[in-house]
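Field reference: sequence -> structure
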Amino acid sequence: MPKKSKPHQLLVEGKNDRYVIWALCSLYNLPETFSVEVPETDGTEGIEALLSSLPLKLKEKNLKILGIVVDADQDLTARWQAIVSKLGGIGYPNIPNNPPPQGWVYSAPELPKIGVWIMPNNQLPGMLEDFITYLVPDNDNLFPKAESILQEIEQAGINKYTLIHHSKALIHTWLAWQEKPGMPMGQAITAGVLRYDSKLASAFVEWLKNLFDIMSG
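Structure field:
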């Protein structure tokens, strides 16, 4: 017997995204009205698995609301267009040319309500780790040190990571220097090492509330 789909779902690229979102939802006291799903293709997570899952996902009979959270990576416009192409092919009209700064939410007749947030902030290239840098406490003394060290090793050409992953190296370097070194990002939010109430985190939570029809408490 096929598994019944959940009516309210949020699709993300990987488990780190899921844990960060769970942590924010917990601290903002959002009710558990939606699931956070990580699509896989042949056991592999990521943007391609998520995008390829959309046509079938949006045809699930029980689905009422679907949210999509993806990384912009190097090209925000290309990422947005990839999503627009998928949604347009399914029948969604009136999709804006660019993602709104506050995230996109749209209700279409006879189609699931849809929402898209492109990490970090719908306006810049980047990824989940760039979003997390906005949660670092103001005037933190260690963060500039981490940035300085990364710039030093990059200028010397001795970094093993690619420059695309600079923000990954930066946030995980910074997390390695905390009282409990190397905490995962979601756990760091829960523990108060990262600020759950930053402007960007609050904007993301407002997008979730708008998408999933969650009343402000």
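Note: The radius of gyration is 18 Å.
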